[in-house]
Write a sequence for this structure.
């Protein structure tokens, strides 16, 4: 009994940090509709800032002052990020801002590395709260008890701020209808900045307050990201009490998981999330989200046309150039080209889902890594020949996509995105912790192509044929009736349903197809490297694909491929330098600001400006905002009109 | 149910019996009965919040009724999904247009035709090359042929409404449901759109059920008018009968609806 209570208390104490960080994320999303990927980075900065301050400020007062100051400092950093990076891109198409926040992650990672070094820092213990208290014989750290006591006050304070003050009224109003709030004379930009300050400060506080328990290191940002997304989604987007309950639930379960099911600690969180969302699709205390009514839809995508003769010739020329590469280029160049093609196919499969289907999957790495692991496992355990493993990889990835798609497509918008992320993480944690079967952290090695492909150049040709073939296939499907049905389901689900299109089935099939093709790219990957590790399933991998799709241009057909090729090339060049993340992050931010329609989209706009075009929605001015915004998002609940 | 009603059901294009819908404690629609005959243009009018759109959503399957049944050509379609109802022969236009913004005008039609021909899951042909002539003739029917290749996103609102009408005709429906077809349009465009609808209805011998706030439009084109107030059908008759119905006047004049004065003025003029 004593042990049980002690563990319960540890869980409650751990919930403090999780709640602080998650509530910040929830607030920022609620008001600005920005999925702030950099929220984990704010948390990390809070920890580092707190560490440095605690070195300087002595005693108990110094400790708590450091915690508060860290919150303040990170809040200010949040404001800087908002003003410099996000303000220029608020007008960009939906979700484009998350690319910018991804750039911020990279920049902050390297800045932290420069300032605090690569060593993990051990957090100082809180003066006056160093010992333990015995509860029924079990030791419980005093600091834990302090955290348990503090959190409800923070929750109450935030709740009071949101529900009982004028600022809170504005925040809630903006969460529901930003345009209306702006029309009532509220300066939106400062409201956004204010919310960013508060959200970042909460993350900073969370980082500093956990120092005595966890210290500070450079992996904190990504490590907490999945957990806070899970907390926000389980609690219900925008619900602070929900976030608290979810934080407690996750933390307590985690503590018990560590003692009773040590192999499943990572999986547990995502299982809980999947269960909660199956029973309550909008979280414990969340309400159904009306997507598309306050999202930034941006200008509609242009009609697409099958490639003309010129474009076909260009692609043909590129293909010939690729096939000639081994003859003229170095071995290194061939390997680079292989990597690029594989990444391009992966990105193209996500683009199919995201661009054409409007289905924002945050967990697409599950199918890339999934395909790689299916092939790898077949070779390792069943000694399957490469050909068989290669064929079964997309089947396995496709099956995973069938299941995930079925679970996720009942949700829409950001809930859909979060659930795809959680399920991808579920797969990742399964692979990571199931040592005997998947090799865990050590991955699977010695997975080489069949003898007829064993020469590196022949595998390159194979990659060109399969990879480019896959990309062309996806592109063709985009022009086929199925591709059109997918776009129709995105553009107006209500019209599509009213004209006989089973939109959910179309989306489900698209999800499966995208998963299977990501599986193909995963199979190409595993046989080109000869090994696969769990990081191919990680959030970071999913984000990579997301970033390139947005960077290339969501609303253009070739956006995914162009984005992937550019990023992979730039990355290959930059990683030679020590602080390549900083450079890459800044580069991404600059591209985001200069080319808010993505690389392809913005180039096309430039082309139109220079050479003129009469069907450009911008130039005709006929595009009534009312009609563009009536476009309902996939699964939107706004169907049928309102009486 | 007696024998007489049963015969009525199989004769009518649409027969609605005892349709009711409550949201929690609010009775949005209560016990509505009506039928539509072949070739009939039936208007459903009533103040805002009378339950017109709720009624529509139940007919088309967006909402399932708390009580009552809907029969299409004698077949019970109550609670069927919108796409099933469409397959049975009901076309619908929306109060707020729902078109495919990323496609051209003709592609919007082609999309509906692809669904009509059950080619939705085909991945071989280019969608833009399918059923072009069929689509073109539908566009000609609604007077949009010249705009076929324009992007849907840059159309004027009135043209979107006409495009939606053409989309609704793709499955050769028996019945058109039009929810405020002329909302948000200039007066001249309203008359033109309804004239167009009336012509098409006559040519194809369709039935139409539409809701409308503009009494000019209603009295000019409807064959019969139903009046809904607070979820209940308070009148159902010819245009002349409705004009002189005391209860209807009470609802529109006494109820203090925003548009009542104008419309009655219009009616007198």
């Amino acid at each position: 009994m004593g042990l049980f209570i002690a563990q319960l208390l540890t869980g409650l104490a751990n919930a403090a940090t999780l709640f602080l960080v998650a509530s910040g994320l929830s607030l920022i999303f609620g008001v600005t509709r920005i999925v702030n990927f950099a929220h984990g980075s704010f948390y990390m900065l809070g920890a580092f800032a707190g560490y440095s301050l605690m070195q300087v400020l002595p005693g108990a007062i110094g400790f708590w002052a450091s915690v508060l100051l860290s919150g303040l400092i990170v809040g200010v950093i949040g404001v800087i990020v908002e003003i410099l990076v996000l303000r220029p891109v608020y007008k960009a198409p939906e979700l484009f801002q998350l690319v910018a926040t991804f750039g911020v992650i990279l920049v902050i990672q390297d800045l932290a590395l420069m300032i605090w070094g690569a060593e993990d820092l051990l957090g100082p213990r809180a003066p006056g709260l160093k010992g333990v208290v015995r509860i029924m014989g079990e030791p419980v750290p005093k600091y834990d008890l302090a955290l348990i006591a503090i959190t409800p006050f923070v929750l109450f304070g935030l709740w009071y701020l949101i529900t009982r003050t004028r600022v809170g009224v504005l925040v809630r109003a903006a969460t529901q209808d930003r345009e209306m709030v702006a029309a009532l004379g509220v300066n939106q930009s400062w409201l956004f900045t204010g919310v960013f300050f508060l959200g970042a400060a909460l993350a900073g506080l969370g980082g500093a307050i956990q120092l005595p328990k966890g210290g500070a290191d450079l992996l904190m940002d990504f490590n907490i990201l999945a957990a806070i997304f899970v907390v926000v989604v389980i609690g219900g987007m925008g619900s602070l009490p929900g976030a608290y309950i979810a934080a407690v639930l996750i933390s307590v379960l985690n503590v018990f998981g560590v003692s009773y099911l040590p192999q499943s600690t990572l999986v547990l969180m995502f299982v809980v999330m999947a269960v909660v969302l199956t029973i309550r699709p909008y979280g414990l205390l969340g309400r159904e989200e009306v997507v598309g009514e306050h999202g930034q839809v941006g200008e509609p995508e242009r009609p697409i046309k099958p490639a003309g003769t010129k474009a076909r010739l260009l692609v043909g020329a590129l293909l010939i150039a690729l096939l000639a590469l081994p003859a003229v280029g170095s071995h290194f160049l061939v390997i680079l080209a292989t990597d690029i093609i594989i990444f391009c196919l992966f990105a193209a499969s996500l683009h199919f889902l995201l661009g054409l289907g409007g289905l924002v999957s945050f967990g697409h790495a599950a199918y890339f890594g999934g395909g790689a692991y299916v092939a790898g496992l077949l070779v390792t355990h069943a000694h399957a020949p490469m050909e068989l493993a290669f064929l079964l990889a997309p089947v396995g990835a496709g099956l995973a996509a069938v299941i995930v798609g079925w679970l996720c497509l009942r949700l829409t918008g950001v809930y859909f995105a979060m659930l795809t992320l959680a399920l991808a993480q579920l797969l990742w944690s399964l692979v990571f912790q199931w040592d005997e079967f998947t090799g865990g952290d050590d991955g699977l090695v010695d997975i080489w192509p069949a003898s007829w492909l064993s020469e590196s150049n022949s595998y390159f040709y194979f990659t060109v044929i399969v990879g480019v073939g896959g990309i062309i296939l996806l592109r063709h499907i985009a022009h086929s009736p199925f591709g059109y049905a997918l776009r129709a389901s995105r553009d107006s689900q209500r019209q599509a349903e009213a004209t006989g299109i089973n939109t959910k089935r179309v989306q489900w099939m698209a999800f499966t197809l995208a998963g299977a093709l990501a599986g193909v790219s995963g199979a190409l990957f595993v046989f080109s490297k000869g090994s696969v590790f769990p990081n191919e399933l990680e959030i970071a991998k999913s984000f990579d694909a997301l970033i390139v799709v947005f960077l290339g241009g969501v609303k253009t057909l070739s956006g995914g491929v162009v984005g992937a090729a550019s990023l992979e090339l730039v990355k290959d060049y930059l990683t030679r330098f020590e602080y390549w993340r900083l450079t890459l992050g800044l580069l991404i931010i600059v591209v985001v600001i200069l080319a808010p329609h993505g690389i392809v989209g913005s180039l096309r706009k430039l082309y139109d400006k220079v050479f003129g075009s009469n069907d450009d929605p911008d130039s005709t001015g006929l595009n009534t905002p009312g009609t563009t915004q009536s476009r309902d998002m996939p699964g939107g609940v706004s169907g049928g009109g309102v009486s | 149910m007696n024998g007489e009603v049963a015969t009525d059901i199989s004769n009518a294009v649409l027969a609605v019996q005892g349709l009711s819908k409550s949201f929690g404690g609010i009775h949005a629609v209560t016990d509505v009965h009506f039928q539509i005959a072949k070739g009939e243009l039936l208007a459903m009018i009533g103040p805002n919040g009378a339950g017109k759109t709720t009624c529509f959503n139940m007919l088309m399957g967006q909402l399932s009724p708390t009580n009552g049944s809907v029969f299409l050509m004698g077949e019970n379609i109550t609670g069927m999904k919108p796409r099933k109802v469409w397959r049975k022969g009901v076309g619908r236009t929306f109060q707020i247009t729902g078109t495919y913004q990323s496609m051209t005008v003709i592609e919007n039609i082609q999309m509906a035709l692809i669904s009509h021909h059950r080619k939705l899951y085909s991945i071989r042909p280019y969608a833009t090359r399918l059923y072009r002539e069929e689509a073109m003739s539908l566009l000609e029917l609604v007077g949009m042929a010249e705009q076929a290749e324009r992007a849907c996103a840059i159309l004027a609102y009135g043209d979107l409404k006409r495009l939606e009408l053409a989309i609704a005709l793709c499955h050769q429906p028996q019945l058109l449901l039009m929810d405020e077809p002329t909302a948000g349009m200039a007066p001249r465009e309203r008359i033109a759109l309804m004239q167009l609808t009336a012509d098409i209805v006559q040519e194809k011998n369709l039935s139409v059920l539409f809701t409308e706030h503009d009494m000019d439009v209603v009295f000019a084109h409807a064959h019969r008018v139903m009046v809904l107030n607070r979820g209940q059908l308070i009148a159902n008759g010819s245009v002349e009968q409705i004009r002189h119905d005391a209860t209807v006047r009470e609802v529109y004049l006494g109820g203090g609806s925003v548009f009542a004065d104008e419309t009655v003025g219009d009616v007198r003029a």
Q: What stands out?
A: Residues 101-154 of chain B form one domain. Residues 57 and 63 of chain B are 5 Å apart (CA to CA). Confidence is low (pLDDT under 50) at residues 1-7, 255-269 of chain B. Strands of chain B lie at 14-23, 26-36, 41-45, 67-72, 75-76, 90-93, 175-178, 207-211, 224-229, 232-237.
